[in-house]
Amino acid sequence: MRNCISVSCIFESVAAACRYFCRAHRIAMAEQLSSPRITAQYLDSFVGRLVTIVGRVTQLRGDQATLDADGTVTVVLNRDAHLTNGNAVQIIGKVNPDLSIKVLSSRDLGAGVDFGLCAAVVEATHRHKDIFVIDG
């Protein structure tokens, strides 16, 4: 009988772990889906919201950076942000009332990014909101 109880406990633990990781995955996917791609011109429509933006780093100063993302955007960096002046970067962050973006995650994309294509993707997602998940 002890083996049955142990197996049962192990099964319950595994099931609980699966539920936890599935829930964490759903939350991560929901956050990913709820961070629409924007350029500088869309900032005022997404205050208080999570967004994704791609731009070229034009200036680094302390805990802030300036990006060119079809317009100037100021981003407030976190400790994990390692940007290089002149490189492209993808930022996921929250738009502040002053239209700066508080960085939650950043990824250096290097120098070979087609910013025209990035802007076209943004425009397509905003033009065809019925296809893409955008609440703004």
UniProtKB/TrEMBL annotation:
Subcellular location: Nucleus
Swiss-Prot/TrEMBL GO biological process terms: base-excision repair; DNA replication; double-strand break repair via homologous recombination; mismatch repair; nucleotide-excision repair
Keyword annotations from UniProtKB, A to Z: Nucleus
MF terms in GO: damaged DNA binding; single-stranded DNA binding
Matches recorded under Gene3D superfamilies: Nucleic acid-binding proteins (2.40.50.140)
GO CC terms: DNA replication factor A complex; site of double-strand break
Predominant cellular place of this UniProt entry's protein: nucleus
PANTHER family, per database record: REPLICATION PROTEIN A 14 KDA SUBUNIT, REPLICATION PROTEIN A3
Family that this chain belongs to: Belongs to the replication factor A protein 3 family.
This protein's name: Replication factor A protein 3
